[in-house]
């Protein structure tokens, strides 16, 4: 991404798109009972509350009545239908893991099988987006957490730490290509959740060979443990690697969330918050609800002079419903240099 003169002026920036992640699949309901919805009605109402606070994208996981993360796609269908009925314009983004929470005590947190995750393309009513990981990768979500982050929670137990420290993401090349193909065929946007530049480079290569004719709507997930750490050097390198047509959201965990989101607001990028990412105020004096986190970002963005996008504007920014026909069109629309033609020498550029 190129930051020309005036890039930091709010009048030259897109309005801010706020993604909320209020379902927190790594937590047990007892970890934060005031803000972890369990019944279907409460899960639907949580989406409504987040929308009313200013979030226009919701990252969806689902719980069963016993509080455990649901592996049943029928529960996703039910939640999506419920949210659609109450806040029809909100962008519904289904988490591609479905639920990575351990099914029983002593088990390791894990993503579901390739075939099961492919079925996300068949959800009805269909979501606007499904997130996708690129390249199989370690996802140790507790590696950069400290004792204070998990104090008094299920992640603070030896069992909880062990379960989530050993989690990996299966996302091999053939699965990724097939998954994007199925999502696109059903009019569902692929939202890339990327750990580092090497994964972004894989996405670009897939676009160049015509296996990924979609807008580059992505999140940089800086959570450590196999992903980038949320420091300024990693951020600057990743942002520089993103083409100008990309729509980039920043994500991290725990007390890193607010500082990274402030950087995103200042830079003209987009933000994500919610209890899936963090449950504490910055001084850890108390737990902070997803709605409070959204309201905080709305307030800060206004201080920066940057307006928050409404749902219609967020859909335009996120290019919901847009798909491309060819690799050349995909590269041009996303801001990548064109591929080299046979015999062409030197660097390539769009005329």
Automatic annotation (TrEMBL):
Its cofactor is Zn(2+). This is Transposase. Gene3D superfamilies: Aldolase class I. Keywords: Metal-binding, Transferase, Zinc. Signal peptide: none annotated. GO terms for molecular function: 3-keto-5-aminohexanoate cleavage activity; metal ion binding. PANTHER family: 3-KETO-5-AMINOHEXANOATE CLEAVAGE ENZYME, 3-KETO-5-AMINOHEXANOATE CLEAVAGE ENZYME-RELATED. Coiled coil: none annotated.
């Amino acid at each position: 991404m190129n930051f020309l003169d005036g890039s930091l002026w709010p009048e030259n920036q897109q309005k801010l798109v706020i993604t909320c992640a209020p379902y927190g699949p790594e937590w047990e309901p007892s970890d934060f009972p005031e803000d972890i919805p369990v019944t279907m009605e409460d899960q639907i109402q949580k989406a409504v509350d987040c929308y009313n606070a200013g979030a226009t994208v919701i990252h969806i996981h689902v719980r069963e009545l016993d509080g455990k993360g649901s592996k049943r796609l029928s529960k996703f269908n039910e939640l999506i239908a419920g949210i659609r009925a109450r806040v029809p314009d909100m962008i519904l983004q289904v988490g591609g893991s479905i639920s990575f929470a351990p099914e029983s005590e002593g088990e390791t947190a894990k993503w579901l099988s390739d075939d099961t995750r492919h079925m996300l393309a068949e959800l009805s009513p269909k979501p606007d987006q499904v997130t996708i990981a690129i390249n199989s990768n370690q996802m140790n979500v507790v590696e950069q957490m400290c004792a204070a982050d998990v104090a008094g929670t299920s992640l603070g137990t030896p069992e909880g730490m062990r379960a989530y420290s050993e989690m990996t993401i299966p996302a091999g090349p053939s699965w990724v290509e097939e998954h994007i193909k199925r999502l696109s065929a059903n009019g569902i946007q692929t939202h890339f959740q990327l750990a580092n530049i090497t994964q972004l480079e894989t996405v670009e290569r897939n676009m160049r060979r015509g296996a990924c004719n979609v807008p580059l709507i992505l999140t940089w997930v800086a959570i450590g443990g196999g992903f980038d750490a949320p420091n300024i050097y990693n951020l600057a390198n990743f942002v520089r690697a993103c083409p100008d047509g990309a729509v980039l959201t920043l994500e991290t965990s725990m007390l890193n969330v607010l500082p990274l989101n402030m950087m995103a607001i200042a830079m003209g990028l987009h933000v994500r918050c919610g209890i899936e990412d963090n449950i504490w105020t910055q001084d850890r004096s108390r737990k902070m609800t997803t709605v409070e986190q959204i309201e905080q970002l709305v307030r800060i963005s206004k201080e920066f002079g940057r307006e928050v996008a409404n749902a219609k504007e967020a859909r335009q920014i996120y290019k919901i419903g847009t798909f491309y026909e060819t690799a050349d069109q995909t590269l041009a629309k996303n801001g990548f240099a064109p591929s080299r033609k046979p015999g062409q020498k030197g660097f390539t550029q769009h005329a």
